[in-house]
Structure prediction request, 220 residues.
Amino acid sequence: MASGNFGLSLVVVRNVPLFSGLDEHELEHLSRVARRRRAERGEFIVREGESTDFLYILLSGRAKVTNSDEEGKEIILAILGPGEFFGEMGLIDESPRSADVVAQEACELLVLGAAEFQRCWRENFPVAKKLMQILVGRLRDADRKIESLALLDVYGRVARLLLEMSEEQDGRRVVKRKISKQEMARMIGASREMVTKVMRDLEAGSYIAYDGDCLVILGG
Prediction:
């Protein structure tokens, strides 16, 4: 497990969305107390059940948040990219890690100790507000996923997932994030074969199309 204290530049800390409301003095303090860590592809960054000692913020790369069902099958709860963070729940309620987080590709992370993270959000309203907004957003996402599993068939779940991953670009809805059929299946509670069939049907029906590495949602 690769880690190390390489010292953080002020630019790195300033570009973290969670810290966007901090003044220069606080940013300088965080640049001194935070450290960098690298994780290689496939490496467990945290494991379910471990004690919670750090907040992790992705600077580059991707990581997946996972649990396992009763049969040991992996369930992907979320895929995280640069600027997103994890580990905050246990630092707030002092509970063990509730899920595994695994690097999907080589990642660089900013690591902040529990005491510094708690001091930061308690003493800085902008950080506390941003943290609450992100947590509320995650709760809403969880509600939508539960609704999808209860009310939508696999076609509906795939369509909703694609819409949630998409972003506006030049008047089109585009999915830039690379995600495999297996990952999609594990995110929506379906088989890879069924997801493959749905994607083929959506493409054949001109609901989606591929433009290089991007997937474009056409809307039929």
